[in-house]
Design brief:
Helix content is 38%, strand content 23%. It is an alpha/beta fold.
Length: 311
C-alpha cells in the first residue's frame, strides 16, 4: 500500500488528477475508522495523533503511553493487537500493593521499560513513591515521556540497570521490541544494537539514596538472579514482597535455572508462590511441568498474614 507522502508527491508531480488523488487518500483514511471500531474490543480508549507522536490511552488503568514508530511490542500496541496488555499480572500486582498498604507502599520497578507498571500503580494508588530503573537510553526517554504525560512525580526514573556489581556493561536492544533488551542476545533479530549501560547493586543504590522498599516488580529478561544477589542486604533488611518473571529459556542464557532464584530467596526467609485462580500456591521448585512464568516471593514472617489470606 502506498503511503500518504507517495500519493501526495504523485499528485503534485501531475501523475494523478484531483478526483483520483481524493479517492486514493480517502482509501487510506479508512484505516482511522477501522481503528475506531477496533477500540471497542480492546483495553484502549483512544489514540491521539499529533505532529510529533502517537499516544494511546488505556481504559483501565486510564494511563497514556507513547507509541514509538519502530516498536511492535510496546504495551499499547500489544493491547491493541491482543485485547489487553498483561491484564492478569497487573491486576495481581494491584491486589498485592493494596494488601501491603496501597499509597504508602515504597515501590521499585526494576526493568521498567516504558513504565506501564509504574504508571498503573501511580494511578490506582496516588502518593505511591519509589524508583523505576531502565538502563537503555532510548527506552528511558520513552519512560520519561510517559511519566510526564501522566504527571508521575513520586516515582523517580533512573537510567540504570541493577545487577550484582557496579559496572558499565554491554546490553543488546531491539528498536522493534524494546522489552526484549538484555545483557545477552535473547532474540534473533536483525535490528539488534549494542549499547553500554551503567549498572549497580540494589544494596548500593538503597544505601546511597537512603531508600527502603516494600514491593519490587522485577522483569529483566533472564538477569533476575543477579538483581536479587545484588540486593541481598536490602531483602534481609526490608523484607519486601517481590513479583518477578522467571523464564527457563532466558535464565539458561545466563547459565542458571529459575530454581536457583527460589533457593537464594529461601536463604533470606522467603517462600515462592504462583497464582492459580484467586489463590496463592506454594512453588518450592520450577520443573519442566511448571507453566507459570510470573512468581511471587513473600517473607515467611513479615507476610504470614498475607499468605494466610490468599492461600
Amino acid at each position: 500500500m502506498k503511503k500518504f507522502s507517495q500519493i501526495k508527491q504523485a499528485f503534485k508531480a501531475g501523475q494523478m488528477d484531483k478526483p483520483s488523488y481524493i479517492e486514493a487518500m480517502h482509501e487510506l483514511h479508512g484505516v482511522l475508522f477501522d481503528y475506531a471500531q477496533h477500540l471497542k474490543s480492546c483495553n484502549l480508549g483512544e489514540i491521539k495523533i499529533t505532529g510529533t507522536e502517537v499516544v494511546a490511552v488505556f481504559k483501565d488503568p486510564p494511563v497514556a503511553m507513547v507509541c514509538p514508530p519502530a516498536d511492535a511490542r510496546i504495551a499499547p500496541i500489544e493491547a491493541f493487537n491482543f485485547g489487553d496488555y498483561e491484564h492478569a499480572e497487573i491486576q495481581l500486582v494491584r491486589k498485592l500493593v493494596g494488601q501491603l498498604g496501597g499509597a504508602s507502599v515504597r515501590f521499585f520497578d526494576i526493568g521498567a521499560n516504558a513504565g506501564f507498571y509504574s504508571l498503573a500503580l501511580s494511578h490506582w494508588f496516588p502518593g505511591l513513591a519509589g524508583a523505576a530503573f531502565e538502563p537503555i537510553p532510548a527506552t528511558y526517554a520513552h519512560l520519561l515521556r510517559n511519566f510526564a504525560l501522566n504527571g508521575v512525580t513520586r516515582i523517580t526514573p533512573r537510567n540504570l540497570g541493577l545487577s550484582d556489581r557496579r559496572d558499565e556493561l554491554v546490553f543488546y536492544t531491539y528498536p522493534s521490541q524494546s522489552g526484549s533488551s538484555s545483557m545477552t542476545r535473547n532474540v534473533d533479530s536483525a535490528d539488534v544494537r549494542e549499547v553500554r549501560c551503567a549498572v549497580l547493586k540494589l544494596d548500593d543504590y538503597c544505601r546511597e539514596h537512603g531508600a527502603a522498599i516494600d514491593f519490587i516488580k522485577c522483569d529483566v529478561e533472564g538477569a533476575e538472579l543477579f538483581v536479587f544477589k545484588g540486593g541481598s542486604e536490602v531483602l534481609c533488611r526490608d523484607r519486601p514482597a517481590v513479583f518477578t518473571e522467571m523464564l527457563r529459556k532466558w535464565c539458561a542464557k545466563y547459565h542458571y535455572h529459575p530454581s536457583d532464584i527460589i533457593a537464594h530467596f529461601a536463604t533470606l526467609g522467603y517462600s515462592c508462590f504462583v497464582v492459580q485462580g484467586d489463590r496463592l500456591v506454594a512453588c518450592p521448585t520450577v520443573t519442566e511441568e511448571t507453566r507459570e512464568t510470573n512468581f511471587i516471593f513473600l517473607h515467611r514472617e513479615k507476610h504470614a498474614t498475607l499468605v494466610a489470606a490468599l492461600a
